[in-house]
């Protein structure tokens, strides 16, 4: 009887480990897909010319593909139910999240640079709608991941995620006329360190080496996580 119980326990543990690994791989794959499709959108935005409406049509198609992918990725993640990531698994996701933040930031910067062309084509309202769709999809996608992050890592994970939402909001503000300068704020990993220190997720002493080298280590320091690239 004891042998049967031990066997059942071992099988349950193995199944849980397998599900954890599958969740991690699904998230990583989703990040990769979103990055690639965002880069496609950026490439199409860069081609837009205010004198030629046809140059803007591929942007809408690329954006639709991106939003659909994000929504499908969110649905796939939601199928994992209440399964959560361990701290080690969450740390693995760090570079992927920061990489996506930089990709979105670059895309919005390109879009802002092309604002005169979009306005010349009378496509400002369409850009706003598109950005809102991306923002809504991104919020749902983020929730599907952040809800699985352990408490010790969660504060800094949300700081990285905010870089993505902030970039999208900058684009919306620009095309809504709420930002006269319309300059996209470059994503800076030091923002994450500042937030981590403010929330107590990392000590100033622990952050100092990362600031000195210009790079942030993905590690748990004195029981707290420091996120960045």
Automatic annotation (TrEMBL):
Protein name: Cell wall galactomannoprotein
Gene3D superfamilies cross-referenced by the UniProt entry: 1.20.1280.140
InterPro entries linked to this entry: Cell_wall_mannoprotein_1
Pfam families assigned to the protein according to its UniProt record, in alphabetical order: HsbA
Keywords: Signal
Keyword Signal tagged: yes
Record carries keyword Signal: yes
Signal peptide interval: 1-16
Domain of life: Eukaryota
Any one GO cellular component localisation term in the record: extracellular region
């Amino acid at each position: 009887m004891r042998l049967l119980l031990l066997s059942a326990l071992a099988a349950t543990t193995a199944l849980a480990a397998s599900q954890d690994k599958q969740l991690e791989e699904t998230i990583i794959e989703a990040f990769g897909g979103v990055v690639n499709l965002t880069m496609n959108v950026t490439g199409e935005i860069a081609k837009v010319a205010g004198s030629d409406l046809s140059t803007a049509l591929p942007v809408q198609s690329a954006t639709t593909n991106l939003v659909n992918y994000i929504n499908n990725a969110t649905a796939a993640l939601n199928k994992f139910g209440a399964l959560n990531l361990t701290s080690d698994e969450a740390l693995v996701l760090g570079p992927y999240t920061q990489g996506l933040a930089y990709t979105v930031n670059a895309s919005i910067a390109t879009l802002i640079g092309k604002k005169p062309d979009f306005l010349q084509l009378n496509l400002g309202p369409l850009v706003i709608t598109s950005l809102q769709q991306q923002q809504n999809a991104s919020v749902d996608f983020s929730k599907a991941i952040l809800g699985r992050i352990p408490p010790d890592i969660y504060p800094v994970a949300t700081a990285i995620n905010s870089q993505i939402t902030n970039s999208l909001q900058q684009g919306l503000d620009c095309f809504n006329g709420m930002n006269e300068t319309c300059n996209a704020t470059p994503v800076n990993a030091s923002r994450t360190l500042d937030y981590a220190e403010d929330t107590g997720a990392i000590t100033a002493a622990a952050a100092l080496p990362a600031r000195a080298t210009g790079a942030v280590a993905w590690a748990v320091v004195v029981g707290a996580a420091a996120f960045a690239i």
